[in-house]
Amino acid sequence: MSTKFLIHFAQIHTDFRIAELESLARLNGINVDLHKGSPDLSSPYLVVELQSIDEAKKLIERSILVKEICEYWAEGKTYEELFEKIKQNPERNMLYKKDSFKFNVDVFGGSNTEEEKLRKINNFSFLPFKGPIDLKKPNQEFMVYENYGDVDSPGGRSSEPKVIYFGRRIASSSRYEMIKKFTLKQRKYLGTTSMDAELSLVMANQALARPGTLMYDPFVGTGSMMLTCAEFGSYTMGSDIDGRQIRGTAGYRKGINGIKANIDQYKLSHRILGNVVFDICQNPWRAMDLYKDSGWIDLIVTDPPYGVRAGAKKLGRRNGTVEDYSFKIVDGVENHKRKDYYPPTVAYEMEDVVVDLLEFAAKMLVVRGRLVYWIPTVTEEYQLDDIPIHPALELVANSEQPFGSWSRRLITMEKIREWSEADSKVYNTNPADSENSSRCTSSTSLSGLPNNKPSPAHRNFRARYFSKFIRQDSPATPADAGN
């Protein structure tokens, strides 16, 4: 028999909350309908049905967007209605007759003075609780939630609660502890594109990071996602075309910079396998046919460089290979063998980065493995079918973080079958652009869009951002936007 529970969300990143909970339900083997009654994202409360209190605890234990979960007792538009519904279950009310207890009043969209809260709590004196009041470590904690409505919700805020919930608090999530632990304010090594702690933890949850799995970040940067996935038990590794990001300015040996400083800070060296410098288009596994029978990576979690803070690069020269430069001698040493050598690169357009990332994931992920990545979009041009697809991958979640005229979307995909040679020849979005493509292989494109559809909202994003959005949206640009 199922039991009702009330989930209390943090009122931030509202478009991500259901996707994260669905991932955590999948991770714990919990069956729950999170779309029942069309969840109101303007409200921080959601009633769900679960099989047990243990399921409720597991569901939200490592959630980053949930504050707590309560055993749902009743709800009403007024306190009188609420009290009548609570009284309809006297057997449940008697269960906690002798326990120590406390009451809390939580208000969303309104305010209560301490005197008003105390008065409302005293109105629950009809309950048969005879145990001592304990404000520090009670056996039971009862929650009163008043929802006055969000200012942006239909009808706006009201002077009286739109709904009042009452329940018994079951558990809190690890939200505050995890965000505090991984906050960028305390991190030893940062870059201009280091991912915000809250979102990097959400990404790890979306990817189903867990013990016994292998995670890979092909655009590792300063390693934010690698750290959070390792925290949840995954073995992790990363790569980047620019080794200076990985090493930091002081290098590994001094131990005061680079990703290693962060690994040591969080004591995660036993789960982080290492980082390698290479271009994902020239990855060392491409000729090994590791994906022919089955993939070998469980989760790919990454923030591809899309140009707000740094543009994506790939190996190459604008004019192609120049033999005169290939074996240039500098101080008696071939240039490419020098320790400070940095190979020439060319721009790697966002739409091509994403297409190549999907192809890589389709090959290298195990079946049911997940790809979690960010993609920027122009708000007024975005359409659902802008999101690239692949025959071997299924879209699981598409959550938006808006910044005005542009936004970025966290895309979660799951591999549903093995990759085949035919997959790379299915879709061709912009055949006229094939000569100018910056993809690893320019002959195909896997966005799955019909040939007559306008360009996707992330095409040439970097150029459009700096020519248009930077002037009007720069105050809203987050420090971690645009790896």
From TrEMBL:
Residues 434-447 have a biased composition (Low complexity). Residues 426-458 are annotated as: Disordered. GO terms for molecular function: tRNA (guanine(10)-N2)-methyltransferase activity; tRNA binding. GO terms for cellular component: cytoplasm; tRNA methyltransferase complex. Its EC number is 2.1.1.214. One of its GO terms (biological process) is methylation. Residues 186-314 form the Ribosomal RNA large subunit methyltransferase K/L-like methyltransferase domain. Keywords: Cytoplasm, Methyltransferase, RNA-binding, S-adenosyl-L-methionine, Transferase, tRNA processing, tRNA-binding. Its main location: cytoplasm. Residues 4-175 form the tRNA (guanine(10)-N(2))-methyltransferase TRMT11 N-terminal domain. It is found in: Cytoplasm. Pfam families: Tmrp11_N, UPF0020. InterPro entries: DNA_methylase_N6_adenine_CS, RlmKL-like_Mtase, SAM-dependent_MTases_sf, TRMT11, TRMT11_N. Belongs to the class I-like SAM-binding methyltransferase superfamily. TRM11 methyltransferase family. This is tRNA (guanine(10)-N(2))-methyltransferase. It comes from Mycoemilia scoparia.
